[in-house]
Each structure stands twice: as structure tokens, then as C-alpha cells.
């Protein structure tokens, strides 16, 4: 069981807005930055959001991140078929002294 | 162009050892904090450990499941990161990725293609 938890699945139709949640505790999300990764089949994870809400260059502004207390969210607006992927959140855990990844959310574009 | 290329994966019996390498190109990796992340088939990523840059002390930290069995090191003269894995267990079977955990205000920006480690008799 992951220290950081995500819903296993999410879905939406093209053009819709979808949010993916990430829940942790005071030792990880509550006191450290949250990162979001997109992973396509057979490829390495790719950082889509860093430090809670910052987008690396090349990531569409349809993607945004937010954090409140011990939870975080990834929002995707104007959903597109190419957004179909697995999404993972991660945060440093001060108690465990390590990076904790969520179990992942499989996003399906219907 | 920044590239990370892992190598050294393969099939090993339980209790055996393996050393993975990650060669960096296109940037000065000595300034980066480097991490190893693994992913077992059908599961999410799992952080294995990291090594800070020498200017930040060059210290290492490990995830609980590998502590005492795995060792991360770096040779900045060769732009190479290593993961020495000893006393391997079947549950260590995974694709292992190296990544730039922190480099010039970029976090987890660059990843290798991964190398598969299979621990089986």
C-alpha cells in the first residue's frame, strides 16, 4: 500500500476537464513539493508538473497542478486523446527520507 | 542534447550481484543530484536511491527495501553513475532508470531509457 495514494483510474471525453487527486500526509505532501509525471506505455516517466504547480518547458498549459494541505491535484483541461496515459504524483517524505510515488492513475479518454 | 543511457541489466539468480551504469552526455552531470528509480512490471515507479553532487556533499540515501544491499556511486570524470546491487531478490526484478533528480533548477527533467533486471532461478 502506497504512502501516497491516487485513484486507480479516471476518464473523460475530448474537450472535458479532468482532475486527478493525490493524498498523502504531513511528512510528505504536507511539508514538501509535489511532482506529477506522465508515463506512456514502454517509456520512462516524464515530469509534467514540478514544485506543486510549475510546468517544464514543452508541457502544454492545459496541465496544471495545485496543492492544499496533505493533498494535491493535477488538472487537465481541453482533454485530448494523446493525454491518455498513466499519471503519478510524488513527494519527498521526511520521515522515510525518500521519494514516495503514488500508485498511479490510468487516464482514459473516451 | 542531454542523454542518459543505462546499461548492465540482465538475468541474475537470487543472491547474485549486478552493477548498472548510467552514462550522461550533453551536460555536466557532476552538478546534478542523480537518482535511480525502478519499475516492476505492471506497477508504478519506486525510488531506489540518490547521490548528491560533490559540491553538496556527495552523500547517498536509499529506500528501505534496498538499504544495505545496493550502493550508488558516481565517477564525474566519466560522467557516469553506478548502481551496485548485491544479495538480489526476486522482488528486485524491474526496469531501472537513472534520472536527474535535481539539476540547474530542473527536477526529474531527464531520464534514461531504462535497463531491465530480472532476478530468477
What report would you give on this structure?
The complex is a heterodimer of chains A (110) and B (121). In chain A, strands 1, 3, 4, 7, 8 and 9 form a 6-stranded mixed sheet that branches. Chain A has 110 residues and is mostly beta strands. Chain A is globular. Helices cover 0% and strands 45% of the residues of chain A. Chain A has no helices and 9 strands. Chain B has 121 residues and is an all-beta fold. In chain B, the strands form 2 sheets. In chain B, strands 2, 4, 5, 6, 9, 10 and 11 form a 7-stranded mixed sheet that branches. In chain B, a hairpin with a 4-residue loop joins strand 7 and strand 8. Chain B is globular and about 40 Å long. The N and C termini of chain B lie far apart (40 Å). The model of chain B has no long low-confidence stretch (mean pLDDT 96).
Q: If you compute it from the alpha carbons, what radius of gyration of chain A comes out, rounded to the nearest whole angstrom?
A: 13 Å
Oligomeric state as shown = heterodimer
* Apparent shape of chain A: globular
SSE order of chain A, one letter for each helix or strand: EEEEEEEEE
| Main interface: chain pair and counts | A-B, 23 and 23 residues
Ranges of chain A with pLDDT <50 over ≥5 residues?
Answer: none
Most strands sheet of chain B: 7 strands, mixed
The main sheet of chain A comes to: 6 strands, mixed
Report the portion of residues of chain B in β strands.
Answer: over 45%
Uncertain segments of chain B: none
Terminal Cα span of chain A: 29 Å
Tally of strands of chain B: 11
Structural class of chain B: mainly beta
How far do the termini of chain B sit from each other? 40 Å
Instruction: Please write the string of helix (H) and strand (E) elements of chain B.
Output: EEEEEEEEEEE
> How would you state the average pLDDT of chain B, rounded?
96
How many helical elements of chain B? 0
Helix content of chain B: under 10%
What is the average per-residue confidence, as pLDDT of chain A, rounded to a whole number?
97
